[in-house]
Amino acid sequence: MDIKGCILAVLVAGGVVAPDCMAAEVDHGDRPLYGFFLSNPLGFTNASNENYGFAKQTFADLTNSELMYGLSGGIGVYAATAIDGIYYAAPYYYGSSMSMPEPRPMFTYNIYNGRVREIGNWSDGATDLKPSDMTYDRKTDRILAICYGSAEGGGVYEVDRNTGAMKLICKMNNGGGVIAADPFGRIFSINHNGELLQLDLTRENSAKAIYQLPYAYLSANQSLEFDYTTGKLYWAANTLENPHNDQGHGTWLVEITLPNISPDMDYSGDMAGYSYQEIDEIGLSARFQGMYIPYATGGFDAPGFAEDVKTVSSPDGSYCTIEFKVPATTFAGDPLASIDGYDIYRDGTRIHTGKGAVNAGETVKYEDKAIPETGKEYRYDVICYSNVKGDGPKSPAFAYVGFDSPDAVTDADVAVSDDFMSTTVTWTAPTVGQHGGTFDPSKTTYDVTRLPDNVKVAEDITECRITDNLRRLMRYSYQITAKNEFGATKTETRDFVAGTPVSELPLEETFDNPTAFKLRWNSIDNNGDGMTWIYGTTLGMNVFGDYEMTAEYIISPTSVDAFTKDADDWIISPPIKFADGERYTVTFDIRSLTNENLNVYVGPRNEVEGMRLVKSFTLNKPQYTDDEAGRMIFQKYSFDLPEDIAGTTACVAIQIATPLNEQYYSYIQLGNILIDNAESGVQDILSGESHFRISNGVLTIDGEYGSASLYDMNGVRIRDIRNSETSVSGLHGVYILMIDGVSKKIVM
């Protein structure tokens, strides 16, 4: 799902020529730059369908981003910071444009091995505290977050790396929306007026403006970060006012030079030597945060990153071998003939120094046989150095030393039989350990548990395949546990609806119980844009004048970015066993404020693939009318299903397929889906105490009723019923009779 904040991202047509002071070319070579894209309309070089996640680019090409870890399912990130390549991120869940983001537990993401680990709750959800940026202060070895929130007040918080908890250390109501720590522990921010601030965390509200930048009104969470190689400050600026006059659509990497960086510098607003220049635009209409810039303490002329750093746990699990190649370039990317030595660190402690010249490209190996404890993971850092130029950057690798549990299975899949009564579950066996340690694949066995009923369908098997029989129709998944004597990993398959198909009609869905709906029906965001059918909002009370439990499709200008796609969102019934020789219809209620395109499908499975079109129809202007209470009433639509579904098991689907309009606005309610026999003859319906019958071309309603109307299959009201007896002679086919809000299909 693409994360929809409260900022409308619109692609900018045309460009603006920047002032000369912004056009200076900065040569950073191919130095890497990392961060989190909250959105990236241009996509990524390796995942064009992904719009957000942690990515890597270079200073030389900020628009060419490689997605390293994409997020989905409504999970976004408020703020993040990295400690030597390990990100700490404060995420949230954003379900729809009609709900507020909900905090989710803080997690770490390792940019070098891709591992993700949940830490703990950064918020209990009871307050509106939200971080807007985070930084790592190397001097005090702590993570700081600048936050806002009405209950606690704005300020700087310390983040507990072990639990994720945030603790207020200094109120800073006159601070800014971003935060960064320089090499000497001084803290800086930028406020909404575009002022660079220095913060004194020993005094509340001590923000001091030291430099005015030509940017103002921060329009989204963004990032501020020092480059420890050069001492320069970098800002991923996203502001409503800037030299480009782009109304906040662009994110610009701004380099800020502070005068005389030194341990004891006390900055003042009237000091000379401040300057800024733009490097380039980051993406296009992107939202970029959690900036991380790897650095070399020796500067650009120091050796570059060690190459191909590898770690291997020994066959007996007692020691670790570290292997790497000497870099062929400096940190700036210039050719390098040799290095003067290297250091190897284990968890921050130097364990080996290799002295003497080593040629570029040469492979170096070192066996760490002094492992303090086996059965755990260690971080190794290789630093290549020059006696004259100093240390190059850290080149990390991670090693689990000792015997290891299996990694999670891959390619887990569920195939459902044509009659929906059985499944075949398959997977691919792990070939490596869960942590990269010493691992014997032949010792792996598997348990398979069916969820949510927690039935163990297989135990201690070695084959990567099982079959299962189902009876109750509901939504299932399988948990596959790969295990050996050293531990286990669990993998859950996709969820699916299967079991005994519905055979007794009518099948009706009123959406009054979203949990029950999900147990048997499928709701599919087929275009993956995060805008899909939702359930149970209160918007209808304000828009239509009453509250009805329905499926709703909502697009709002405050929640849509420019890359949102044409609608392709489905509601699919559970499997239905249609009897031989019968005819069937599907009926549903609709009210809408907008023009909408909808389709009705049938297919052999409860998924998009294999569906065939039954009927396409368009809601051209709002088709509602008001009742006496001023409420916008639903219109009823009914369509015959293909005659050849008789004698088969099939599913019925309703798809919204409206092209994205220029207003980025859509609101439709879909309710009371009814799949039933297309019966003929006399019908009987209860409406309070009312009954009806049809005989000799006369419709008779017995009992008391408030209102009654007759609709055709397109939902058009053709007759109001005001008397107990009404002539319906001359009417032929299928119609809908509605009595006091209760409807019944009739055939005349």
Number of helices: 2
Question: How does the overall form come out from the CA principal axes?
Answer: globular
Helix and strand content put the structural class at mainly beta
Uncertain spans: 1-26, 680-690
Characterize the largest beta sheet: strand count, sense, and whether it forms a barrel.
Answer: 6 strands, antiparallel
Mean pLDDT: 86
- The percent of residues in helical segments reads under 10%
> How many domain regions?
5
Task: Output the radius of gyration.
Answer: 32 Å
Distance between the termini: 47 Å
The CATH architecture of the largest domain can be named as: 6 Propeller
Number of strands: 58
The CATH class assignment of the largest domain is Mainly Beta
Q: How large a portion of the residues is in β-strands, by DSSP E? A: over 45%
Provide the CATH topology of the largest domain.
Answer: Neuraminidase
Could you explain the architecture of this structure?
The chain has 748 residues and is an all-beta fold. The chain folds into five domains: 31-292, Neuraminidase (6 Propeller), CATH 2.120.10; 307-401, Immunoglobulins (Immunoglobulin-like), CATH 2.60.40.10; 412-429 and 442-498, Sandwich (Immunoglobulin-like), CATH 2.60.40.10; 507-677, Jelly Rolls (Sandwich), CATH 2.60.120.200; 691-747. It has two helices and 58 strands. Strands 40, 42, 43, 46, 49 and 51 form a six-stranded antiparallel sheet that branches. Strands 41, 44, 45, 47, 48 and 50 form a six-stranded antiparallel sheet that branches. Strand 29 and strand 30 (390-391) form a beta hairpin. The longest helix is centred in the last third of the chain and has 7 residues, at 514-520. The model is unreliable at 1-26 and 680-690 (pLDDT under 50).
